[in-house]
Every structure is written in C-alpha cells, then in structure tokens.
Structures
1.
Amino acid sequence: MTRVLAIETSCDETSVAIVKNRQVLSNIVKSQINIHSFYGGVVPEVASRQHLETINQAIAQALIEADLDWPNIDGIAATCAPGLVGALLVGLTAAKTLAIVHNKPFVGVHHLEGHIYATYLSQPELKPPFLCLLVSGGHTSLIYVKDCGEYETLGQTRDDAAGEAFDKVARLLKLSYPGGPIIDKLAAEGNKLAFALPEGKISLPGGGYHPYDFSFSGLKTAVLRLVQKLEKEGSELLSESSVTRDIAASFQETVAKGLTKRAIACALDYGLNTIAIGGGVAANSGLRWHLSRAAESHNLQVLFPPLKLCTDNAAMIGCAAVDHLSRGHISSLNLGASSRMGIQDVMELYKFPLV
Ligand code: KG4
Ligand code: ZN
C-alpha cells in the first residue's frame, strides 16, 4: 500500500490530492477560471501568483479531508512538465520542500502521464496496453500506453489543441472563457448540419493524409470567415441567436467526428481494444456520442473517466506517482520544471544527476 501527496499547478488549477494506490482519499481543486476569464484566457503571471496564494491552504485541506498526517504519507509528488514554467515551479518547489522537511521521497510527474492515470482511478483493474485519446486545452494526442513510463505518441495536433480550438471559436462567437462547455451547451440546441466546415487534414509528402494527426487551425479560420460573411449579411451573432447555436453545433460536430475517426483508426491499426479518454474536452457531449457509437460498432471498449478526473487535478498525478514510487522511480531534488517535454521522455524524470 502506497500513499502519495500530489500537487498539480501546471496551468490554472491549484490542486492537491492524497492517493492510496488507485484510490482517491482527497482531491482539492481550486480553479482560477473566474480570474482568467476576465482576460479571455490564462495569463501565466497571474496563474503563478494565484497558485502561491492558495497552495498552502490546499495542502492543509487535502490532509484534513483524507484524515491523515505526514507520518502516513510515503511520498510527495508534483507535476514538473509540461506546462507554464512559473506555475509549475510553485507546485514543484512546495513538493520538494515538503519532501525535505518530512524526509520523504520526491516524485516528479509528467502532466500527460497524469491524464492517462486518471483512467486507472476510475478503472483500477485496467491494464496496458491501451490507447489514450488526450484532448485538453493544451494537448491533443493519441498515445499508445505500453506500461508505466512507456509511451509512444502515434498522433498529435500540428497546431492548436482541441480545447484551444473550442476556446478560440468561442471568442469568435463572442462567448466567454473557457469556451468548450459553452459551445457544448449551445450546440445541443443548434443544427449540426447547418454549415459544412472543413475537417483539418495533414497531407503526407507522397500524397494522401496522415491517418492519426490533427489540425484545427483551418477549421478555426473557416469559422472566422463564416462569422465575417454572416455579419456582413446582417445576421446577429449573439449567444442566444439561432445562427450562433448552428455554428456551435456544426463546429462541434466537425471536431467530434475528426477526433473519433482518428482514434478508432489508430486503435484498430495497432490492435488495441480499449480507448481511454483524458483532458477537459472528454466532457464534450458530441465527442462522447460519436466515440461511443463508433467504438460499439467496432467492438472496442471506450472509457470516459468522471469529469472531475478528466480536467486538471492532483489525484491523477498522485496515481501516476504511486506506480513510479512502487517501482523505485524517485526524482532528484535538482529536478527542474519544463514547459515542453514529450511523454516518451518520462523516464528522464527518474534519473539522478551524476555528482
Ligand atoms: O484538461 P483541461 O482542464 O486543462 C488543460 O490541461 O488544458 O482542459 C481544459 C479545456 C478547455 O479548453 C475547455 O474549453 C475544454 O477543456 N472543455 C471542453 C468542454 N469542457 C471543457 N471542450 C469541449 N466541450 C466541453 N464540454
Ligand atoms: Zn491537463
């Protein structure tokens, strides 16, 4: 039995959790969305300051809710990459300090590996190999999960992340931030066939298209052109207007179908029977509908963890840390934060520097 206290501060959620193996004992998530929505997106400096203000309280609260004290904790973990460096440093420094003060091993965790581990929290019996479709505000990837620390990225976005596309299109439609949930809500009352929008495809040098890679910038530009055309024609684009609902529905349908097509093709080509979904866009009802239906018709299993585990949280970081810790993977206290680090390099986090 391994109990880890984990900290996640890679973006705009300050989160501290205590996880026992694959069981969540506490998971405190303090969202900064209200502060950032004022600016229409995450402001890195504001995020770091906000993490600093809330982290100590979140740590105390996580211990109280789990009804544990330091002697019961086996390790301290923190997200160290990828993410906003200033924001990551707050959680990383707090975790290292706690590790020194309480004489516990320190485990740095890759944020995307955390998103993969969210599925284990809701399906503790799940075993690799499986495919993870990771769709968040910062990432869109198809990851072949081979084992703890062993991952291969089979497909990824060449430009915007899926959540980023939802947020940018929401801004074009004069909706607030984050745009994903708002577009999802409006799409439910719109006509998804109202506008034909282009599915982003990545051309291959020898002809044809990349089967698993994504692109959302062309789709975003198509929505911009559509909005400009409709406004010129005198349409009123307000959040309550039916034309806004139709654009939201058509956009969501295009994204959901594109993600589903690639995820299913990838799972079938690699002989993987299970697709686990992670990241905030996993909440999207269009994606859930298309993916569930397509998976059923191909006899594949699709796993959607509960929403609070799909979006950024420290419980998923703790779950990954438990597996690493139980395999003797410990990080150096010299470990730094990195804004960009591929998931294939996860094991670099457990190499001690030569002294
Ligand atoms: O995983 P997450 O909480 O943070 C990142 O690591 O990025 O994902 C946040 C993203 C935002 O872009 C938000 O607009 C999107 O997830 N999102 C959604 C929905 N709920 C959140 N996108 C589409 N449909 C939703 N229902
Ligand atoms: Zn995330």
Note: The chain has a mean pLDDT of 95.
2.
Amino acid sequence: MDFPDLIARKRDGKSLRDDDWRRVAAAAADWAAEPETAPVPAYQLSALLMAAYLRGLQYREVLALTRAVAASGERLEWPGIERPLVDKHSTGGVGDKLSLIVVPLLAACGAAVPKLSGRALGHTGGTLDKLESIPGLRLDYEPAELGRLLRDNGCFIAGHSAELAPADAALYHLRDVTATVDSPPLVVASILGKKLAAGAQAFVIDVKTGAGALFRSRRTCERLARRLVRVSGDCGRRCVCLLSSMDQPLGNAVGNAVEVEEALDVLEGRGPADVRGLALELAARGLKSAGLAASITTARESATTRLDDGAAREVFARMITAQGGDLEAFTERESAGVVSREIAAPRSGYLRRLDARRIGRLTMLLGAGRRTVADAVDPAAGVRLLAKRGERLEEGQVLAVLQTSRPARLDAAARAFAESVGIGDDKPTPRDLIHRVVD
Ligand code: URA
C-alpha cells in the first residue's frame, strides 16, 4: 500500500495493520534522520497524525504503534544491574519537579532508575532545563557511560539520545506543530515507546489532570491511564499510574533554578507538603510495582524513611556530582542581573483560582522555556508563589514574586499573573491532589 492509501484508510476510520504501523514508525525515524530526503515527507506523516487524532486508534493499533516506536531505534539494556529497574514519567505539569526527588528516592530504596528526560514544552517545564541550572552538569551520554552511572549511583537523569525511539522524536515534533499532541492513543505510543526502549521493567506514571494538564478531563485521563497500564502489561512490563491534580502549580516554585531549590528543600525534609506527599506516593507505587515492597504500606514506610533519614538527598548529591554538576556552586550562585517584581493581592478574600496553565505560560515568557528550539533558557527565570488556593489574603499582601534576567518581560508577565488568579469571598472547597491510582 502507498502511504497516501494508508492515510486514506485512517481518514475513513479503518484500522491499520501491525505492519502498517511499523511502516509509519520506520518512515518517521527516516524523517528524523534526514528530513530533506526522507521517502515519506513531513506533510504525509502529519496528514496521518491528523487522521489518527480525529479517528482514534483501536487498542490493537495502539499496541502495534507503541512496539513500532520502541523498535525504531536502539534499545538500552542494563547488563550487570541487579536491582529492579524502575522508570518514572509525568505527562507534564507546571512546577513539577518530582523527578528530581523521586528518582534519587527510588534509588535510595533499592531500585535502579535510568531516567531519560525532556525539555520544556509549551507551558510545561522540562527536567533537563531545570537541571541545567546546576553549573557543570552534563546530560548527554553514550549508553556505556549511562550503564556506569546507573551501576555506581543507582540512578541518573539524562537527555534522550537521537538514536532512542527516533520515531517518537519525529512524530512528537510534528504533533507539536499540527495541533495533534492531545491524542490519548498517540500519547500512549509516545510515552511507552520511549520507556520500552529505555529498558526498565516497571513504570510509575504521573498522569496530570486539570487546567494545566495535557488533558483537562478526569475521564480522559482515566482512560489514558488504563491504556498505559494495559499496553505496558502486553509488552511484559508493570505500570502504575497516579492521576494527580494540575489545576494549580505543584509546590511554590515554578521555573528552573527555583524548582531545583525546592526539590532540594524536600530532599532535606523541608519544602511544600504537596510536593513531598506526591513524591512519596509516586516512589511508594514505583517500589511496589518493582517488587521492592510487599504492600503499599511497607512501600510508603520505606520511601518515608529514606526521605527523612537523608538517604535520598545523599543519592541526589552523588548523582549530580557523578554527572559533573557542582551543587555548592549552585547553592552559592550570585543573583547579579536578576530582577524581580512582587505581585500584591488586589483585594482581600480567599484565593480561589491559581491557574496552572497561565502561570506556566508566563513563566516561559519570563525566560524559563523556549519559543523556538534555538532559544536560550534563563535559569533564573521563575515564579515564587507565596499563597496557594484556599488561603485567606489581605489586600496588598504579596501573592508571588516574579524573577527574570530579562527585565523587558516583567510587565507583560505581571499582567498575565493578574489574570491567573481569582480571589473571592467564599473559601473554596479543598480538592484532592491525588485522584486515583490505576494499576
Ligand atoms: N509526554 C510524552 O512523552 N509524549 C506525549 O505525547 C505526551 C507527553
């Protein structure tokens, strides 16, 4: 079948066969390698993505595409690693610094965690951009070097190499510019294609739901979580998903360096309760899923102990040092050239809304993310939230501090912040941070 016939089948709502999806993934990988000369050009891949977005995929097709994405490049193996291999993923949030805590925490509890992460995308931050605010830190490695890091420290956080699941790099890039990112079947194939190629046996996935999430609807997120668990199972892996709220940013820091600071606070026994609570639950679910705890109760006990006795903080420091980072230089860094602006509450009342999506966008505007791939990221750009949803405020009280090395952006960001908050007379009903566990 020619590629246009494949597009037509999907356009007309028919299923594609397993080898059709293998062909799609191979074409995407070819396009990733040589976009100018690839046999299937971007416009055909994009047309297929739009057809898949609109028509959806049968379960069998999702499984086939996931396997094909995983097989589109090299697959990492971890010979000599005896600990259970666990991977952690998030569908993307605002203020989501959980990988910086959960990865070393899982390792401190006996798991091996080969964590490959991404960069800021849209309104959501990227773990690699956050980590790069630590001077000297290296994120690109050859597989043999990753194996050494994993053996020596129990974990690493590094960037994806172009050779790992290259079909996903191409498809994700095209989805990003063709309004086809928020498609549950394409998200399943994207996340699990990469996770399968990275070689862990168990996955713990934080599926964000609400205003700042990829999918706002809880029902869509539940369906997505069930698919992630089922496809993982059919690929011989264990997967547990937590549905967690992303209506307001997680914690009090949004940005790059400020989020690393907050992660360190949590690793040192301080920090916001929501970040600590979700980090502990993700770690506990990951431990249980990897067979490192007999029950969720013992998994929680083990995660809490290793966070509170400083073991996770020690693993974090070891991991950063092994990857060339200088934590001392990070904590003692100068704030020369960084400007900040306090944002005051315009009236008294209860903070009823702190819109995660808008705050994510304005943090990117301050310089924490990129408008094009070539943009440089400002490590100092960020927002410190001094109040969260449900808190009582007095007029004039400082709600947040915006900071950036690009002063020209402060006015627009301050205006955007004003639109991100809602203050009212009635105390809002509290919302759960963790909605559901799907396994
Ligand atoms: N994260 C991914 O890795 N892929 C998606 O498609 C969405 C979130």
Note: Residues 119 and 128 are 5 Å apart (CA to CA).
